[in-house]
Queue: 2 jobs
Job 1
Amino acid sequence: MKFGIAVFPGTWSDRDCAHAVTLAGHDPVMLWHKDADLRDVDCVILPGGFSYGDYLRCGAVARFAPLMQAVAGFAAAGGLVWGICNGFQILCEAHLLPGALTRNASMQFRCEPSWLRVENAGSPFTSGCARGEVLQIPVSHGEGRYVADPATLEMLETSGRVAFRYVSRDGAPVDGSSPNGSMHDIAGILSESGNVLGMMPHPERACEPLLGSADGMRLFQCVAALAGDRGTFITTGSR
Amino acid sequence: MTFVAEVVVSLKPLVNDPQGITIRDGLRRLGFPGVGSVRVGKHIEIEVDAPDEATASAAVAEMCERLLRNPVIEDYRIGVLRVQTAPV
């Protein structure tokens, strides 16, 4: 399984993602933002950071990078694309996922543990988890408040496209008091065919016990387990 | 001719603006109890070479649609379009 890891000017989690991929027993391939070549990878990770300085809006400029043109085509053909933090912001700006990520309701940059309930365990990223399971994965962002119009939220909920929702440590609903104030406490969403995942929390920062949690490694292992199975992935989960 | 467009990008009315709320509360603490809603946006000045104002205006509108605003959360308006006379 070849994992491609995008590197934009200002990306900061690329090496952490490469470390997580290596721990999962696979090879990371760094993908430079000026190259439109995906180098035959099986999964593209858009890591966290501040691509292009987060100028104008987070992810707004990265969308036009040659690499992102290739990623859009790859996603349309059913390729796995995994946006983490700034990567999620880029996917929304590129219209590969609906909605937008806005300034945290608290106005603070929040860097802390968070707890995510798996809402869809049928995606290529989460099929190693059980629906309703709670994962401890940290957040680290200033602009992660997920916003979408009511029709889009309804569509995401009814079609099983909410991948993760923020909950309390014991799994109870937080009802708007998530680290960023996201609508419906949404922490991650899937594309219509389930092959694109965007999430604000950082699984690569929860990939070994030394870091306080190894729950994020479950997601990397889940994707890695798909090696050799490059079909189109369909979401099977429902709310 | 060179035109200068002033674009204002603002959050849509229904999008919560925590920056605006923070500023509103600060203004009230500063002794302006009459302050109501405060909304924060972006002001962008763009120089455009174009044969006439209509062409310049159309180009700036397309820039707004394609990059300067996120249609999910933001509105825009093109405020002033003047002819650039001398270097500032």
Note: The longest strand of chain B covers residues 2-11.
Job 2
Amino acid sequence: MTASAEHAGTIDIRSLTKRYGTVLAVDDVSFNVPEGSIFGLLGTNGAGKTTTFKCMLGLARPNSGTVTFGGRTLEPAMFEHIAYVPERSALYEWMSGNQHLEFYRRSYKHYDAERARKLTDLFHLDLRKRVKALSKGQQTALAVILAFSIHPKILVLDEPTSGLDPVHQRHVLDLMISESSAGTTILFSSHQIGQVERAAERIAILHNSKLVMQGDVEQLRSDEKIIEATFDSETPSLNGIESDPRVRLVTRNGRLVRAFVRNDTEGLMKLFADKQPRSLRVLDQNLEDIFLSAVGDDINAAKSWGG
Amino acid sequence: MYYKELLRVRHFFVYFAGTIAAIALVCMVIPNRVLSLGAGAHPQIPFVFFLVVAGIAASILATILGTSLAAENCAHLEIAWTLPASRIAYAARVLWVDVLAIVALFAFIVLAGLAVIYAHGFGRYLVFDPDSGAEVLRFAAYPLAWFGIAQALTASMRAKAPAYAGLAWPVALALLILYEVPLSAPLHAMLRTINLVNPLVYASFASGTVTPDLLMLNAAIAAEALAGLAILGIALALAQWQRLQA
């Protein structure tokens, strides 16, 4: 077995850049999605997530950079094992759910009718209805059913829970986790950070078309602690804490000050305690903290690594 | 692999064929005494009449189906381009099924017309020209030429495609009329050249020659020209489709 066959589900994106006219949609983005992992792509609106997906799948032509799947550049036959759920429905509005399933059955060798039936039951979808008669959430559910029914090795999901109710959102996440445990590589985007936190093992964060952070979720969480202090004064004086090399970022929100600390949390706690805050505590970072600090809350950002 | 395409054209085909079938049925039940075949002891029903009607009706369908690639481009590329098939193969499948539907409708209309004639016992009045075979090819190729032109115009478009495909008809008519207007020689020559790709030029009702002032062609050459337009249009559409990637 060759190396590429062993890791057919690995996605490797290198120096991907895409311009639409003068607009830079994706700027030199590189990341790697290991086989069988769940990888979350986070970013604000217009950050370049969908464009990245489109470039990956050949729906848009990148200006530079490469994308490989298991070490191979994309070719049509590989779509036998790659499924894509786009953010905006691409279903045929004049076709019914049943007709879509039949279309996929005839198009994909590994289409699993039994699985499609079970998923249809799970999402309570009436397949007799035409797509134009389905709600946005139902259309998303149908797209998800189609994607999972072909037993893909790679699943690319752009906002896969968009329009779904919380119960069905949970179903999609459970499906992703279950599919990943069976070896499927999953790359997905979502604005719902809680979902990404629950499902993704690794993340990349795009901001203003650039990759601003990536890594293992647990590692990123443990990389930094947050010291949160509440002061009596609206503008507490921090006297040098903001420029302390152990502190990556300090955010202020009225009386609340949060410092993102890389190391020596105890030493910095003492510095904060000297400022006599009303309350002081150390928090573990959650993904939302990581995301917000990565995309740079310009109002609150006081300092970031490397200027 | 043709499933979705067959479903797509079925909708249009059923609508058109159903309308034609209904008209044919109505014509069949009209009593003979109400029908007039003109004065004289030897009334004539030219076979080419049915070809013209079928050609025009099929051309309407052809114009509608002529935006099929644009419709894919407008909203379905995320499905169409992530199927395990080459893009050209996919587009060729779309176009092939469209062509089949257009030809099938053409044949259906001709047969429906003949059925009406024979149902009334007027079959003996049918007049076949010596070049009826070439006329069949000419009027079968006529809607395909419109199809090719519509595809070539719209393959890389999105929502505006139907409007552009529809505009091809009045523009073609205007070009033909302009040619008849006294204009300067260079302009006249230019219009003559442009009209070479105008399907209307090749669809004169008269058998044997096609718009004599413009082109001296017989039905066989007109059929070849129309088929050429269809092939050229389809080739241009496929080339656009291949380069469509944003």
Note: Chain B touches chain A at residues 1, 3-4, 7-8, 11, 75-79, 81-87, 245-246 (CB under 8 Å).
